[in-house]
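Incident log, support desk, overnight shift.

02:14 A customer reports that sequence design results differ from what the structure should imply. Their input is reproduced verbatim below. On-call engineer (initials T.W.) acknowledged and began investigating.
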């Protein structure tokens, strides 16, 4: 699953300053094997400080098969419940997805649950092994996504060879940088870490809220530890039968569809963007500009790859549609690449350690399951899909290509089975491209006590708690009482809601919505995965 990093937005949640989420200043405890412990202290993040959060580390085995062996540290945060002890509902672990997404600051998620329902829980954020403030954190080459890369589409043997060498080099860098950690980044490793966090918190059961890849973590946890699950919300569900090679090919088709929808939205607002009055004309303009950038990158930096990567954000979310449209309009109509560059830099940072999320993404996906070992298979499959879905198929292929030469051995994925799991709440919009809707139907089938909310016709990925009352109030009710929508006896959603609405790019509307939109974009920055 290709991971787009973040919608470019100021990181200032509800008036808190812009900071990076880091671990606490307290020294990590030295817990004996089988006796996990968290020593809580002050958080470095002002976002967490403003919410009176506590931060700390938990020591866990590098290899859970050797609990007495080498240990690593996971960064953990906690925002405590605000209700009386009588109304307290337990701990709520959260994960933003990725894999590779930092979840330390996501403990603020409870603030976004309507009707104060989040106040009944202790919200537990954590950086999974290898991620963010956890130690060690994996990074291989911070300049891997820098400018002047070969075009994604391997239209010549030279381009193909260059990308293959580039991907192989990154895998080699990760082998050197990752050491022993590289062989212990599977989903099952993080699931075992989660259970140690549960024990360290003194909880008999956990509640859990997962987005995107975080839904797969939840599925596997509920399969292996069904008696340890109380309530669970999974938004943007990974299809457990398609991990991970097939899932990426599924994405390629879905993103091509969604980008066409976005082209149509740009056409509807031709008076604002001046890119064409029909979806076809905007699409033609996009590929025309892309071809021009192959020959001459704008400003020497924005080439066809960068343009695709910026537009990919619009395939994930309706958030940021205006920013992408205005940036492309500035390039096409004014020859100005600066806005596109700002969007690219905001989502694909460069420099030392900047590839942490990407490195862990590969560390998980390349070792969760065996990928095809022959390049000829990759090549044939991606050219076949490219003919139907040219927008980002090859970009996605190269994004995952280091798996061909990954140093750590792959494992065998857990067969997800929710027959013993408690009732859980599933969420998806119909046209989610990162985790196609069929995945949510598959999870619903495997978890017979679950219920699925569908944002009918929507294209946003993992968009719960963003102001859609139909969805968000249902979440609040479930977290309060455990009540789910009544399950329908058919292979379909159990509750249907209107989707998150596309923005209105008119100046008046942008001004009127600026206050709430910033907050939503900031939250999106915390949960962005694919």
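02:41 Re-run completed on a clean worker. Output:
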């Amino acid at each position: 699953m290709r991971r787009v990093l973040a919608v470019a937005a100021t990181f200032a949640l509800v008036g808190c300053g812009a900071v990076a989420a880091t671990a606490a200043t307290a020294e990590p405890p030295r817990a004996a094997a089988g006796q996990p412990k968290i020593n809580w202290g002050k958080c470095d993040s002002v976002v967490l400080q403003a919410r009176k959060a506590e931060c700390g580390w938990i020591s866990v085995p590098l290899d859970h098969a050797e609990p007495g062996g080498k240990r690593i540290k996971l960064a953990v945060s906690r925002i405590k419940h605000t209700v009386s002890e009588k109304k307290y509902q337990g701990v709520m672990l959260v994960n933003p997805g990725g894999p590779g997404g930092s979840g330390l600051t996501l403990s603020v998620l409870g603030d976004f649950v309507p009707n104060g329902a989040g106040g009944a829980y202790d919200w537990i954020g954590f950086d999974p092994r290898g991620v963010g403030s956890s130690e060690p954190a994996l990074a291989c080459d911070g300049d891997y996504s820098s400018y002047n890369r070969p075009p994604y589409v391997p239209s010549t043997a030279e381009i193909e060879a260059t990308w293959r060498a580039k991907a192989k080099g990154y895998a080699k860098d990760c082998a050197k940088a990752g050491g022993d950690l590289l062989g212990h980044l599977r989903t099952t490793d993080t699931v075992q870490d989660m259970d140690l966090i549960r024990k360290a918190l003194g909880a008999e059961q956990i509640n859990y809220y997962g987005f995107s890849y975080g839904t797969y973590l939840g599925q596997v946890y509920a399969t292996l530890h069904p008696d340890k699950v109380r309530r669970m919300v999974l938004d943007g569900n990974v299809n457990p039968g398609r991990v991970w090679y097939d899932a990426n090919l599924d994405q390629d088709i879905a993103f091509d569809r969604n980008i066409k929808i976005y082209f149509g939205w740009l056409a509807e607002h031709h008076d604002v963007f001046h890119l064409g009055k029909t979806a076809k004309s905007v699409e033609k303009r996009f590929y025309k500009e892309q071809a021009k950038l192959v020959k001459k990158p704008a400003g020497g930096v924005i080439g066809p790859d960068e343009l695709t990567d910026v537009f990919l954000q619009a395939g994930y979310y309706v958030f940021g549609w205006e920013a992408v449209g205005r940036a492309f309009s500035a390039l096409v109509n004014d020859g100005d690449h600066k806005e596109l560059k700002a969007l690219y830099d905001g989502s694909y940072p460069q420099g030392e350690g900047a590839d942490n999320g990407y490195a862990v993404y590969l560390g998980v996906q390349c070792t969760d399951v065996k990928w095809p070992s022959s390049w000829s298979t990759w090549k044939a499959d991606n050219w076949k899909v490219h003919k139907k879905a040219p927008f980002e198929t090859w970009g996605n292929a190269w994004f995952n290509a280091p798996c061909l030469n990954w140093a750590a051995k792959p494992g065998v994925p857990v067969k997800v089975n929710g027959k013993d799991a408690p009732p859980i709440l599933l969420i998806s919009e119909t046209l989610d491209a990162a985790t196609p809707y069929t995945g949510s139907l598959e999870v619903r089938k495997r978890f017979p006590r679950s219920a699925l909310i569908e944002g009918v016709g929507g294209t946003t990925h993992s968009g719960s708690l963003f102001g859609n009352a139909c969805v968000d109030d249902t979440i609040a009710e479930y977290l309060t009482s455990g009540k789910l929508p009544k399950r329908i006896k058919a292979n379909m959603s159990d509750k249907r809601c209107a989707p998150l609405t596309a923005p209105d790019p008119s100046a008046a509307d942008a001004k009127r919505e600026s206050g709430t939109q910033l907050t939503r974009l900031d939250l999106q920055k915390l949960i962005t995965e694919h």
